[in-house]
Amino acid sequence: xxxxxxxxxxxxxxxxxxxxxxxxxxxxxxxxxxxxxxxxxxxxxxxxxxxxxxxxxxxxxxxxxxxxxxxxxxxxxxxxxxxxxxxxxxxxxxxxxxxxxxxxxxxxxxxxxxxxxxxxxxxxxxxxxxxxxxxxxxxxxxxxxxxxxxxxxxxxxxxxxxxxxxxxxxxxxxxxxxxxxxxxxxxxxxxxxxxxxxxxxxxxxxxxxxxxxxxxxxxxxxxxxxxxxxxxxxxxxxxxxxxxxxxxxxxxxxxxxxxxxxxxxxxxxxxxxxxxxxxxxxxxxxx
Length: 287
Ligand code: PLP
Known about the structure:
Elements lengths: L3 E4 L2 E4 L10 H5 L2 E9 L2 E2 L2 H14 L8 H14 L5 E8 L16 E8 L5 H6 L1 E7 L14 H12 L4 E5 L12 E5 L5 E3 L10 H13 L3 E3 L4 H5 L3 E6 L3 E8 L2 E2 L7 H15 L6
Parallel strand pairs: 7-8, 7-13, 10-11
Antiparallel strand pairs: 1-2, 1-6, 3-4, 3-5, 5-6, 9-10, 9-12, 12-13, 13-14
Helix pairs in contact: 6-8
The protein binds pyridoxal-5'-phosphate.
């Protein structure tokens, strides 16, 4: 089956889907994106993703390319055309095509592109083994709350992780505190059992999964604190995990050369993953 993409009003075969060479996304990374997961035929947290897209666009003064209602229909159509049951929707909006000059163009029409692809969920065995993360300096700009296309520091960090046999890289600020992963939020469970994740401000992307986990924790009576934590505190933690739309809750069992807890996924992390999957399965009727 051929993949279908959506580009500025048209559904096209993936291999024929192109944008102009003077699109500002291509030349300046002048745009934003979202990744929405479809799980067992249901979109997870669609509204939160679309709200965050609106925020990112507003912060960068990029016009909405289409109305919310139209966008929801396009998303459903791309899921249908690509027959996605478990997969992800990539949605990108840029300031549009214009002569290459740094200031915003007066009249550019924002460009919108959507693609979809199936994903395979990791086995329970993989989840129970957990993943390794490395720590790297956070060299990004100061508006990480905007889901910008400009991902060079993130991809360099992720490449370093790959070269060191790790799944993710946790970025560390000038005070030795962990901000977040290159495409996920960072969490620890302290030796006294407290669930900790960094406060969402300009320093991190406020993950949709992060927000859902906080809601679930509250519902389950799990105490949590939103605050920064250092590399040392993370390495001494009882448990650690990452969260993102595509990884849900994924236990971290090694940070650099240090094993976390007993080197196996922690009970709270596994419990939260289970609750998150239950939550995802309850989003019936959203497509
Ligand atoms: N932090 C960064 C830098 C990300 O790129 C992402 C997701 O791509 C996240 C956190 C997690 O966000 P979400 O849970 O909405 O996927």
